[in-house]
Structure formats: structure tokens, C-alpha cells
Amino acid sequence: PPPGLLQVVKQCVRVPVFVMIRPRGGDFLYSDREVEVMKADIRLAKLHGADGLVFGALTEDGRIDTELCTALLAVCRPLPVTFHRAFDMVHDPVVALETLISLGFERVLTSGCDSSALEGLSLIKRLAEQVRFFPPGGGITERNLQRILEGSTASEFHCSARSARDSGMKFRNPNVAMGASFSAPEYSIKVADVAKVRTLNAIAKNIL
User: Fold this and answer.
1) Where are the domains of the chain?
2) Where does it live in the cell (predicted)?
């Protein structure tokens, strides 16, 4: 997120805020220039009050990029760091988790190397025995959260809890789209849904 968003979020919430460091979408194989951007983003996030950082980096053969991760972790110190769902794209999740633990990551966010946390639940449960914080994420909703938490023994989870909100624009130009053909409609906005967050929080509190 831009520093402005981080500043406003920090003013509005009391929970710890971890900032995602990801210079672009797509894969997790980064160029030297992208690494420069990531390091700059980490410094800015720390400057503007981030409580932790979140990133992931892989080699071309689907392994943890230990050299890059070590360099980025050094910039993140002393803040805690989570390895994000780049983990779900690794060649061998067991070996990858051992690597992440040895590097010093405190959390690993994962869907269990499957299309959603529910489908990857068996791997999440197996790997969660190796690390204290192994929060499941990916496709988590109020309909499946209880099953995922009970099945994974996780004490944390990750989800977007979003819904679509219609734009307030009255004049609309249907002939122009500000992005690729598969991007979200211009006049539909994705927002965090307060009702969903409260429902998910209540389910989690009841289980944990």
C-alpha cells in the first residue's frame, strides 16, 4: 500500500498492521530493480508505523530465494515478517517451510498449496505442526471458517472479507475501461464488509 493508506489505517485501528511488500502481480521471481523497489517500500513502511512486513520470493525452479529473503529480512529488522502465499507456488512445501523457519520468518500464509484453504486443509494441518503461526488463507468465508480452523488447529487466519459496492457516479461512460479487459468493472468497488468481518470474528472467537 502507499504510505498515505498506511498512515490512515494506523490512525483508525488498534490491531497490529502488517504491510505487504509486492512490487507487482504475477510470479515471485524478482529483477534487481524490483528488489530495489521492495527494499525502498520496506523502509517507507517502517517509517510510517508498520508493525510487521509481509513478502515472498522464489527462485526460477520453485524454491525459496534464500539470498533475497535474507537481504530483505535484514532491512525489515527488528519487525516480525510473514512469508505470504508465494509459499503455495513452491516445488516442495515441506522443504520450503524448513527453509523459512531457518531464515527467521515468524508466519507463513498459505492455502495449503491448493486453490483454497479448504482444499489444502490436510497439508495446512500437517505443516502447522512445524511452525507456531501458520495462518490459512485463500477462499475463506463465513461458510467455511469453522471447518478450516477446527481442521487446521490454526490460531490465526487470513481473508479479504470483501463485498462489491456500486459506485456513486451518476454519469457513466460505458465505452471506457481503466484497465485490462478482465479487470473489475469501473463502477463497482470492492470494499471491506463490516458485517462479514464481525461474523468471521465471532466464529473465530467461538472456536479459539
Assistant:
1) 1-109, 138-207
2) Cytoplasm; Nucleus
Percent of the chain whose pLDDT exceeds 90: 82
Task: Report the alpha-carbon distance of residue 62 to residue 173 in Å, rounded.
Answer: 43
Beta-sheet strands, E only, within the chain: 18-20, 52-55, 81-83, 107-108, 162-166, 188-192
- Cross-strand pairs, 108: 83
CA distance 109 to 156: 10
Question: Burial code of 166-185, b = ≥16 C-beta within 10 A, e = fewer?
Answer: eeeeeeeeeeeeeeeeeeee
R_g (Cα) of the chain, nearest Å? 18
pTM of the shown model = 0.90
Q: Grade residue 181 by pLDDT with cuts at 50, 70 and 90.
A: low
Phi, psi of 201 (to 5 degrees): -65, -40
Mind listing the pLDDT tens digit for each residue in 94-115? 999 999 999 999 999 999 999 9
Cα–Cα dist 120/140, whole Å: 12
**The three cell numbers locating residue 52:** 510487521
Architecture, CATH, for domain 1-109? Alpha-Beta Barrel (3.20)
Q: What angle, rounded to 10 degrees, do the helices at 93-103 and 66-76 form? A: 40
> Taking phi first (over 0 means left), then psi (-120 to 50 degrees means alpha), and beta for anything else, what does residue 17 get?
beta
Q: Average pLDDT over the chain, rounded to whole?
A: 93
